[in-house]
Amino acid sequence: MLDVVVIGAGQAGLSAAYYLARQGLTPEIDFVVLDANPAPGGAWLHRWSSLTLGAAHAVHDLPGMKLPPSDPGEPASAVVGRYYGDYEKTFNLPVHRPVKVRQVHAGNISPDDAATSSPALAPLVVETGQGEFVTRLVINATGTWDKPHWPHYPGVEQFTGRQVHTHDFRSVEDFAGQRVLVVGGGTSAVQFLLQLAHAGVETAWATRRPPEFTPRAFDPDWGRDVEARVNARTAAGLPPLSVVGVTGLPLTEQYMAGISAGTLVSRGPLKRLGAAGAEFADGTGFAADAVLWATGFRASMDHLRPLKLREPGGGVLMDGVKVAREPRLLMVGYGASASTLGANRAGRAAALAALERLSVPAPA
Hints:
By secondary structure, the chain is an alpha/beta fold. It has eight helices and 18 strands.
């Protein structure tokens, strides 16, 4: 039986694995990392090629090894994939891929221990397409990429054009000669609008609320404030807000130019879709050939359903990385650590919490 199974090899999962090894756990014997992707890179592996390193939000260094100097014009997916792959090799991290986790559930206590042991001390069973992994603890680091959020609007089924989510976006060339409605108030929506406009594509922007551009410096103080606001919700068992709902949008020179050009000016909330386009809440319309849903993601946690983690408020009650309902589970990439801001710290916290729990002797 393993001590720890880490699910996910993105930033948070690799950070957790690094600290587990640094604190003395032996790769492949004491812990493994399971990754559903075919290659290193986490969610970055799936980003569109036009998202270059220079255009992406900051790629944070992993603990113990800085991101080497890279061409800002190179696709971020390639840069991060190469960096994560080198990181796994450098620190001999036991990443198994591609391994898709189907579900995590409680195992059985041996008959000899059943009379004296708590059910919480039973092992967890991680079921995958390549067999089962039995472990004392799980660090879940699956993030959000595998759970795109598709909001429902009246008439969406009648729309005859193409509908694409950020998850499946590949290139602005796919929309050449079309009129594109972009839905969503986050960074991806803004980047899509600018790229489409640069390619000569006519766009309209729908947001539920006015875009929250902020001139505030995205510095460590800002980061701590963001984490505190997200953690306040998860500590109450409420679902985390979207990233932009907490961070706002940085008012960069590029974004200011887009506002001046009219590209980054929202038409307001989307009211409905029809066969040939969109109607906004103010009664105006837009004849769209395609809808690009830049509407974010939700926590990828379907495989954890057997553990029954949800609170009445719909979220998972958290104390940092600890899950209130399940002492054998630690979660990173949920809440504040779903962004690159807090992923490294959360990985370290999960590793240390796992070691603390592993060292606690079973009750007599």
